[in-house]
Every structure is written in structure tokens, then in C-alpha cells.
Amino acid sequence: MKTLTVNIVTPDGPVYDSEVDMVIANTASGEIGILPGHIPMVAPLVVGAVKLKKDGKSEYVAVTGGFVEVRPEKVTILTQSAEVASSIDLARAKAAVKRAEERLQMKQDAVDFERANLSLKRAMNRINVHEGNI
Ligand code: ATP
């Protein structure tokens, strides 16, 4: 059976590099499933979990947006930060949720609101990926 090489790369370096059967990612226009032989494309990603299927098992990587580049035999994801489930610090993510929720409750300008909202999304996504709650 054909496989896909998947690379998930951040400014701090590679986070994931493996052969998989299928990649499922959340693009700005919805979820896409990528199988070997997919037509080439580039799409922006939203904060979410990238699902990597191999031999009937699934692994998840939390990403904070970025881009996915698809070629028939290779998928590259470029994102500001990415964590595999086992490297997520749950206490840190919970503290980030608390901070963000406190900021969202305070009166503030639109820029701060948007920042807090994005921070909340990143932290909730990390908690969900850590807990396998996808
Ligand atoms: P925090 O407020 O906790 O810093 P953040 O969403 O602002 O969270 P980012 O700017 O997205 O953090 O990421 C900064 C770096 O910290 C990245 O390398 C990211 O992988 C890492 N990181 C952030 N939160 C966690 C976490 N809960 N567990 C593991 N690594 C994390």
C-alpha cells in the first residue's frame, strides 16, 4: 500500500517526520483528507489537530494554523508551533485558558480581545489533543 511522507515543521525545527496512510487537517475552508496521489495544492490551516493515520491507528499533532503543502507523495505543514500529544504540558495549557478567559472578561479593545481569543483557541486545542478528545 502506498504511503505519504509527512513533515510538520516550525521555526524551532521539525516536530513530526513519518510515513502515514492518510492525513486529515483543518483548512480555513474546512477539513481535508489527504491520501497518497493527491493533486498538488497549498491551503491555509486554522488552529486544530492534524490527524495522522497509520496501520489503522491515529496520532494527533496540535498546530496553530500555518499552511499545508500537498504533493502526491508528500505533505508538508509549516506552522508557528506544533506539539505531538505526549509533549503537551497540560498544566501550562490550562493556565493559558485561565489567563485568556480572564482577559476576555475584562473590558478591552478589539486587538486584545482577538489576541485572547486566539490564545484560548490554541490552549483548548492543546488540551483536546493531549486528552485525545478530538
Ligand atoms: P503560552 O501562553 O502557554 O506560552 P501560547 O499559545 O502563547 O501559550 P505559543 O506562542 O503558541 O504559546 O507557543 C510558544 C512555544 O511554546 C511553542 O514552541 C509551543 O510549541 C510551546 N507551547 C506552548 N504551549 C505549550 C504546551 N501547553 N505544552 C507544550 N508546549 C507548549
Automatic annotation (TrEMBL):
Keywords, ordered alphabetically: ATP synthesis, Cell membrane, CF(1), Coiled coil, Hydrogen ion transport, Ion transport, Membrane, Transport
Keyword match Cytoplasm: no
Primary subcellular site in the record, as a coarse category: membrane
Cell membrane among keywords: yes
Coiled-coil residues: 90-117
Subunit organization: F-type ATPases have 2 components, CF(1) - the catalytic core - and CF(0) - the membrane proton channel. CF(1) has five subunits: alpha(3), beta(3), gamma(1), delta(1), epsilon(1). CF(0) has three main subunits: a, b and c.
Function per UniProt: Produces ATP from ADP in the presence of a proton gradient across the membrane.
HAMAP family attached to this UniProt entry: ATP_synth_epsil_bac (MF_00530)
Record's protein name: ATP synthase epsilon chain
Natural source organism: Psychrobacillus insolitus
